[in-house]
Specification:
16% strand; 350 residues; binds nicotinamide-adenine-dinucleotide; alpha/beta; seven-stranded parallel beta sheet; 13 strands; globular
Length: 350
């Protein structure tokens, strides 16, 4: 444990979720901070903390409050002392669901962030890392996408909440001296912890690739539908920049350390987190089949509202400034997702 971390806490919101739980493991492994989580289990289960304990030997305390509830958040900060930094994952994240229920997304995602920022200065927390998304770039024509790529029109209310969240954070850092904030724009996180003991297990029906693929292979879903095969890409299916969840999780450790150890860090900064490689949905399916040895039952379906055609990152800024680079490739991602499905999939799903 470093002297810097002794007796200090990091708040991880959404700690029972997919990215939050993997990040907690990386924080335990690489830092000495005490970790406290806030998660209302709207898309996760308390069993995530059992899994974290099984892998790391550490029990994480969680407050099951709704972060969009202003009074509850105020009470939480009044009761938890010594929080120096916040990693804010908690949000609703389904693009199609946000198209169907935009108000829910504005309320939950923007409201939660507003409540956290409203309490941060008085609580003495100086550092904040925000889960943003490559969806802030919209439907771009010039690839790869770097942090200099202009922010485009949001293709969904979900993407809009990320754009608005970033704006709120930038203004917050500008107006509150001494506060340091990083927005991490994730591309497409997939895979599971290499142990196979922790992975993606959403309560709400998944709309993203890996749980749908592994769930189909396991027989939970009848078939996997590829949404759109007439895009202007090499095989007609969408191009994405898939990145292993543990690589993303470790980037949070690097970003947090960068802010804490670097007095000259800008008050507000953004970083892309991807591998820099575009992979089509069909190629991802093939990678799954190779990694698992299973023939997937899939079919081509119509395009899905809110999806962009192709996007992949230039992630050289994170490499240069944070000293972070991804370790895993698409087969590792699919192989670990399948290992998780085989080990634990059925036990954690409702
Ligand atoms: P997740 O749903 O697995 O985790 C989010 C967690 O936040 C869940 O456990 C949920 O119960 C909790 N939560 C949601 N609203 C809450 C509220 N109001 N109060 C308390 N807890 C609340 O999602 P994830 O995949 O881990 O994503 C984490 C973050 O990363 C989100 O902000 C998401 O938008 C962002 N992100 C995710 C992806 C992805 O593909 N997974 C891509 C880009 C960005």
């Amino acid at each position: 444990m470093s002297a810097l971390s002794k007796g200090k806490k990091i708040l991880v919101t959404g700690g029972a979720g997919y990215l939050g739980s993997h990040t907690i493991l990386e924080l335990i492994e690489h830092t000495g901070y005490e970790i406290v989580s806030v998660d209302n289990f709207s898309n996760s289960s308390p069993s995530a903390f059992d899994r974290i304990e099984r892998i790391s030997g550490k029990r994480i305390s969680n407050h099951a409050i709704d972060l969009s509830d202003e009074a509850a958040v105020k009470r939480f900060f009044a009761g938890e002392k010594d929080i120096i930094g916040i990693i804010h994952f908690a949000a609703l994240k389904s693009v199609p669901d946000s198209v169907a229920n935009p108000q829910l997304y504005y309320h939950n995602n923007n409201g939660s962030l507003r409540n956290i920022l409203g309490n941060m200065p008085a609580a003495g927390a100086k550092y904040c890392i925000f889960s943003s998304s490559c969806s802030v770039y919209g439907n771009i024509s010039k690839l790869p996408v770097s942090e200099h790529t202009p922010i485009g029109r949001a293709e969904s209310p979900y993407a809009e909440t990320k754009q608005q969240g970033e704006k709120m954070l930038e203004q917050f850092a500008e107006r509150n001296r001494g506060m340091k904030v990083i927005s991490l724009r994730y591309f497409n996180p997939v895979g599971a912890h290499p142990s196979g003991l922790l992975g993606e297990s959403p309560l709400n029906p998944p709309t993203n690739l890996a749980p749908l693929i592994t769930g189909t292979a396991a027989g939970r879903y009848r078939e996997f539908v590829i949404h759109g095969h007439d895009y202007n890409t090499r095989d007609g299916t969408c191009v994405r920049d898939y990145i292993h969840v543990s690589d993303i999780a470790y980037a949070h450790v690097k970003a947090l350390n960068f802010l804490i150890e670097n007095e000259k860090a800008p008050d507000y900064d953004v970083f892309n987190l991807g591998t820099g490689k575009g992979v089509t949905v069909l190629e991802a399916v093939k990678a799954f089949e190779k990694a698992s040895g299973i023939k997937l039952n899939y079919r081509m379906g119509p395009r899905r509202k809110g999806d962009v055609e192709a996007i992949y990152s230039d992630c050289s800024k994170a490499r240069t400034v944070l000293g972070w680079s991804p370790k895993y490739d698409i087969e590792d991602m699919m192989g670990s997702a399948w290992k998780w499905e085989l080990n634990c999939g059925d036990k954690v799903r409702p």
